[in-house]
Design goal:
By secondary structure, this protein is α/β, with parallel strands linked by helices. It has one domain: TIM Barrel (Alpha-Beta Barrel), CATH 3.20.20.140. The protein contains nine helices and eleven strands. The strands form three sheets. A seven-stranded parallel beta sheet has the order 1-2-3-4-7-8-9. Strand 5 and strand 6 form a beta hairpin. The protein binds zinc ion (2 copies). One zinc ion binds next to loops.
Length: 282
């Protein structure tokens, strides 16, 4: 029997996912998952094509509670949110996210400020990222890297979340823009400093496998798994799936690589609590 069949980073029609929640849950049941969490992109104070609306928050939570009842014999179901950190006012600690009956929150950075203080989406494919760096940041990719990690350091300091989402998701695009940059001390120092802060605050560090099938990479990247071990980080392996067919994509490969790096356990939600679960035969 396959073990570690869990995922807590999953989108749906509430945001930019491509299927209703029910389709993800049915697929999870079909694949033998034991525990599953849904985490739409939380509302921002303005409308985007990828975040849910504030008025949908109670609707989502109500639907999740109803589905939890319906699926309780087949799957442990958990209700989460992926919340952006923008600045001191818009972040996982904001009032709008307080007093919600959520099981966990993922803190993520997708947008950063450019030199002129304008907010720019940097969660893009390689071509669009290159254009964004050239057009919105005057080609200063080091500035982009600096701001990206600065925002995550600020988020880790501000708090209000449980899981640090895809912490070096920028790496694939940065490496495409400037080969060699992600293995430089400039970059790895930033990864190390963020991990140190995050583990000191006991956040769970996500190994995000969304890009594994197409690009062979995870976020946090494989090159940094030894840091997770050395720092005794709590680790969760999530697929960040936007399609039901991809709920387990890249997860088994990442679990295998984590095990190779000496990590013996990952975090899973069981009975409403985060538990350390041994990585099985992967
Ligand atoms: Zn994300
Ligand atoms: Zn996501």
């Amino acid at each position: 029997m396959t073990s570690n069949l869990t995922n807590y980073h999953s989108h749906s029609l509430y945001c930019d996912g491509h299927a209703p929640i029910r389709d993800f849950l049915d697929e999870a049941v079909r694949q033998g998952f034991t525990s599953y969490g849904v985490s739409p992109h939380a509302p921002l104070p303005w409308t985007t094509r990828w975040t849910m609306l504030a008025l949908e928050l109670p609707v989502f939570i109500h639907e999740m509670h109803r589905l939890r009842e319906e699926y309780k014999e087949r799957l442990e179901l958990y209700c989460g949110l992926e919340i952006d950190h923008i600045d001191q006012d818009i972040n996982p600690q904001a009032g709008i996210f307080k007093n919600l009956t959520l099981d966990y929150k993922i803190g993520s950075v997708h947008l950063i400020h450019n030199q002129a203080g304008r907010l720019v989406d940097i969660d893009l494919n390689v071509e669009k990222f290159r254009k964004a760096v050239d057009d919105s940041f005057s080609g200063d990719v080091e500035y982009v890297v600096g701001k990206y990690f600065e925002a995550q350091m600020e988020m880790a300091g501000t708090g209000g979340f449980d899981i640090l989402g895809h912490m070096d998701k920028i790496s694939f695009n940065v490496e495409s823009y400037r080969p060699g940059l992600t293995s430089s001390r400039f970059y790895t120092d930033k990864v190390e400093r963020l991990l140190e802060l995050a583990t000191s605050k006991s956040y769970i560090i996500e190994v995000n496998t969304k890009a594994y099938a197409k690009q062979g990479v995870t976020f946090i990247g494989r090159a940094h798994y030894h840091l997770l071990k050395d720092m005794g980080a709590k680790v969760v392996v999530n697929s960040d799936s936007h399609y039901p067919s991809l709920i387990n994509a890249g997860r088994m490969e990442a679990l295998h690589d984590l095990k190779e790096a000496g990590i013996k356990e990952v975090m899973e939600l069981h009975g409403g609590k985060w538990c350390n679960v041994a990585i099985g035969s992967v």
